[in-house]
Specification:
The protein is α+β, with helices and mostly antiparallel strands. Helices cover 30% and strands 21% of the residues. The protein has a 9-stranded mixed sheet, sandwiched between helices. Strands 1-9-8-7-4-5-6 form a 7-stranded mixed sheet, sandwiched between helices. The N terminus is likely disordered.
């Protein structure tokens, strides 16, 4: 056990109290047992420094660094990648097309509201433009339009592969708001995220293959990049990190593909015997809510925390678990809705600073099985986006993620909150009971 603890030590910080499996390192940016100095406010704050976690992996590279992240807007990370490129290492970057243009070259008037807010925040930080740094250094970079399309649903991956031996991945994009917090918001600690460093050539081989499907011939080469459904789906792969069995699945898949991610999640849920703990950014897939309803009937203890911004939307299946529903902006009710007759007591939203989001895509089953990755529990993740879904069979790892969920439960708002009650009252005054939509055939 002591050797596991030493193996898992975070750089520059004491070993965690609980041991981790061989070959796995783990960091939470809201960890209440660690602290670091925020580069945004200059103040000490609780949490692991996920940016330092990424930078350490870049510094340790000897030959190659492959990066596929939805957004990269941390200049220090870009400068570190540029420096390794100048050192002669192979460095390649894939971004989502929304974030592949230097923000300093964008005009706020041309941007959607949320993109305009991002632009203003990055400008206010004064840190520099990460994408421009990569471009000036000549680091090869493509986005999900490199296949000649307008882009996949989202290039939503969050991974980096170092020397085809180490994978850094989790729920965090490489951005200030995903890691440190929002500028100008003193209480912000960033979206609630985690990153893992996984030492396994077997696992790295799977991620390299996914990267190469997207990369194709790279910038200026043949138009053979593949994103979204063009990658051809594929079955889940069984690999190991040390002695830990890991299942890895790359999305998307067509709806009738038996290998698609929602079916894998449903199978995993159906195997739950005693306890299911979840911390999810999005839950919008009816079949998963139905699977949880069956678990409730079987006496399984279920705790679910969802992001406050998504939990109370009309398409959210969190509403099913609460035994209620909500008309959308067109007064329509979700097709095939099944509000629970016996609402779940253990469902709610964590208390977070304004602007911060619960960004995990996390489940812990029976204190043993951990589900994580970039994969939100939604149809778009399964059928449109470039995503990673990871499943670990490890009580040691489950203890760490279970502790993170326990931390989020402290002070969480459970049941139908005053916020949801106000929203329901507004929609009822506008729509009455709403109009049930028809399910697709």
């Amino acid at each position: 056990m002591a050797s596991c603890s030493a193996e898992a030590q975070l750089l520059g910080q004491p070993a965690p109290q609980k041991p981790l499996p061989e070959g796995i390192e783990l960091a939470f940016n809201h960890n209440d047992t660690r602290r670091y100095r925020s580069p945004i406010s200059g103040q000490w704050r609780q949490g692991d420094d996920l940016e330092a976690f990424v930078l350490a992996s870049i510094r340790e590279a000897k030959r190659e660094i492959l990066v596929a992240v939805q957004e990269l807007s941390l200049p220090k990370v870009a400068e570190a990648l540029a420096a390794r490129h100048r050192d002669g290492l192979t460095v390649k970057v894939v971004l989502e097309n929304t974030y592949s243009t230097p923000w300093s070259e964008e005009h706020p008037a041309d941007l959607a509201p949320h993109q305009r807010t991002r632009h203003e925040q990055l400008k206010a930080l004064g840190w520099g433009d990460a994408v421009a740094i990569l471009q000036r250094a000549g680091v090869p970079l493509i986005d999900d339009t490199a296949d000649g399309s307008a882009g996949s649903g989202l290039m939503h991956h969050k991974f980096m592969v170092v020397d085809r031996a180490v994978v850094v991945t989790g729920s965090a994009n490489f951005t200030p708001s995903c890691i440190h917090g929002d500028p100008g918001a003193g209480r912000s600690r960033g979206n609630v995220n985690h990153l893992m460093r996984l030492h396994s050539r077997e696992l790295a081989h799977s991620f390299v293959a996914e990267f190469e499907r997207m990369w194709g011939d790279g910038p200026g080469g043949l138009p053979d990049s593949r994103f979204g459904l063009g990658k051809g789906g594929g079955a889940a792969q069984q690999v190991h990190v040390g002695q830990t069995p890991v299942t890895v699945l790359f999305a998307p898949h067509r709806r009738r593909d038996p290998h698609q991610g929602l079916r894998l999640l449903e199978e995993l849920l159906s195997g739950t015997r005693k306890q299911l703990d979840l911390a999810l950014f999005v839950l919008s897939e009816q079949s998963l809510a139905n699977a949880m309803a069956q678990l409730q009937e079987q006496g399984v203890t279920i705790r679910l925390l969802a992001d406050p911004g998504f939990a109370n939307r009309a398409f959210s299946e969190v509403l099913d678990l609460l035994g209620t529903q909500l008309p959308d902006h067109r007064c329509g009710l979700e097709a095939a809705n099944r509000p629970w007759q016996r609402p779940l007591e253990g469902v709610g939203t964590p208390r977070l600073a304004s602007g911060d989001k619960l960004h995990h895509k996390l489940a812990v089953i029976d204190q043993r099985t951990v589900i994580t990755g970039s994969f939100n529990w939604s149809p778009s993740a399964a059928h449109q986006n470039d995503e990673t879904l990871l499943v670990f069979d490890s009580p040691l790892l489950a203890a760490h993620f279970g502790a993170e969920i326990d931390r989020l439960w402290k002070g969480a708002e459970l049941g139908i909150t005053p916020r949801l009650q106000r929203k329901q009252a507004r929609q009822q005054a506008r729509c009455g009971s709403g109009v049930q939509r028809q399910a697709r055939g």
